[in-house]
Each structure stands twice: as structure tokens, then as C-alpha cells.
Amino acid sequence: MNNFDTTDIEQAFGQAMEDAGVTSLILNNRPKAKLQTADFAVVRVGYDVTDLAAYGTCSVRIALYARDVDNLKNGVKLGVMYDKLIAGMPMEIGRYLVDPNPIISPDIADDYGFHARIVTFRITIKAV
């Protein structure tokens, strides 16, 4: 059985996002409080990691959050964050191979003055 550590996956993607300049605050969970930042991101392994002996697969769900402006979605900021994410996401992060065709969900509002754009990447994990 392979060791596919979800924390390692999330940290690797968080570092790639930081390197791409997407945002300076990258978390693994959405805090249950109002943040005093203009933007942040949440990186999570979605659902589960499938061990296929020679390799593994999973999805990485990235939620890009931008503070609302005048109680309205800040689409410009979300667009800039998304563009940096897509332009800066390498096709290979260590032992993680990134499918270049992400799934993008519609923007959603949270109850804390932010809107989020959810981007999901399918990942193939090299066995070690």
C-alpha cells in the first residue's frame, strides 16, 4: 500500500499557489469568523485518494475568496486570483501530476462578506 498523505498534497499545492502570487493567506479550512484580509484561499483534497497500486488519484479543491465590495461580489479580484492560479499552476508538483483542465464551479457567497470561486484539479500521484 502506498503512502498518499493528504496534508502533503495540500501543502504542495499551497506552496505552488504562493509561488504563483495568487494570495498570501492559504488555509486548509474556511475559518468560522470574519477575516480582516482582502483575499485568501482554501486548499483541500476533495473526497478521497484512490490507491491504484502503481499510482494514485485524487482531486484538489481550491476555493479562492475575495472580500465583497459594497456588499457585492468582487469579480475583478476573483478574476485576477483565478488568472494567477491558472497561469502559475505547474503541470507537475513533485510527485503530483496536474490535469491542465480544471473544473470551475460558479462563484458563491459566504456569510462573512466574501465570495468564493471553486477550482478543482484532478491529480495523478506517482507512487514512491
Task: Describe the model.
With 128 residues, the chain is α+β, with helices and mostly antiparallel strands. Helix content is 23%, strand content 39%. Strands 1, 2, 3, 4, 5, 6, 7 and 8 form an 8-stranded mixed beta sheet that branches. Helix 1 crosses helix 2. The longest helix is centred in the N-terminal third of the chain and has 15 residues, at 6-20. The N and C termini lie close together (10 Å).
Total strand segments:
8
Fraction of residues in H or I helices: 10-25%
Q: Hey, roughly how much beta strand do the residues contain?
A: 35-45%
Residue stretches low in confidence (pLDDT < 50, at least 5 long) are none
Gross geometry = elongated
Distance between the termini: 10 Å
- Count up the helices: 2
Helix-strand string: HEEEHEEEEE
Roughly what is the average pLDDT, rounded to an integer? Answer: 93
Main β sheet profile = 8 strands, mixed
* Cα-atom radius of gyration: 15 Å
Structural class comes to alpha+beta
